[in-house]
Design goal:
This protein is an alpha+beta fold and 223 residues long. The chain is 38% helix and 15% strand. The structure holds 3-iodo-tyrosine. 3-iodo-tyrosine (IYR) binds next to helix 3.
Length: 223
């Protein structure tokens, strides 16, 4: 194996005073707490540069061996969106009519979802996130590491960036979603991970009334 000397640069981080830190942490939590998953989209256009910034924010996520094993396919083309909707609805029809067990359907009742996915045509952009099981460089297969964890983190950053821009999203998982690979003509090393419609909420958008878990339910101290 060839050994290359690692290159390091100094890093100072960003320094805040204690009160600044306290405020920032509180405000960031309160800001993220306002994020909601939305299914009722407006067809209002979103500037391409905004989407590019959102994708680049996602791409700053940490990844196994810094391989960044992700691709964000941004679909604005109405014909492609229609194809995606038709394929997703075909699968979801089967899911809601026999493939999903009764307890799953019951867990979904609070969200009022069904097999119909009009948002796949209404939202100005569909971001189809693909994970790269491996990369191809010089005709050679190069392995990626912790691919699900890495792409999951990038999608978390993506959703935070969308919220920060004042837009809304839906983390959609039509299942199975191999149709995305075909419609978008992605290469063999890429697998669909999430399908994320992005845009403005519709004027009459509604969200389910849900509460988030309390700190006691999600945090365990060991002191
Ligand atoms: N993929 C289906 C079902 C669905 C599953 C879960 I878990 C959800 O949180 C929401 C929906 C659909 O998109 O309708």
């Amino acid at each position: 194996m060839q050994h290359t000397e690692p290159k390091f640069a100094p890093y100072k981080g960003i320094r805040y005073t204690r009160p600044e830190m306290l405020n920032r942490s509180r405000e960031f939590y309160q800001f993220l707490d306002k994020r909601r998953t939305v299914r009722d989209f407006s067809d209002k256009a979103v500037a391409r540069e905004v989407v590019e910034n959102i994708v680049m924010a996602a791409s700053t996520a940490p990844s196994g061996a810094h391989k960044q094993p992700w691709v964000f396919c941004v679909v604005a083309n109405p014909d492609i969106k229609k194809k995606i909707r038709e394929a997703a609805e075909k699968e979801e029809y089967l899911n809601y009519n026999g493939r999903m067990p009764e307890d799953w359907l019951q867990d979904l009742q609070a969200f009022g979802t069904d097999w119909r996915k009009p948002f796949l045509e209404t939202a100005p952009y569909l971001i189809a996130v693909f994970k790269k099981a491996y990369d191809i460089g010089n005709g050679e297969k190069r392995k990626n590491y912790y691919v699900n964890e890495s792409v999951g983190l990038a999608c978390g950053f993506l959703l935070a960036a969308i919220h920060h821009a004042g837009l809304v999203a839906l983390t959609h998982t039509p299942s199975p979603m191999n149709f995305l690979q075909e419609i978008l003509e992605r290469p063999e090393n890429e697998r669909p991970f999430l399908l994320i419609p992005v845009g403005y909420p519709a004027d009459d958008a509604r969200i389910p009334c849900l509460a988030r878990k309390t700190i006691e339910e999600v945090l365990v101290y060991y002191e």
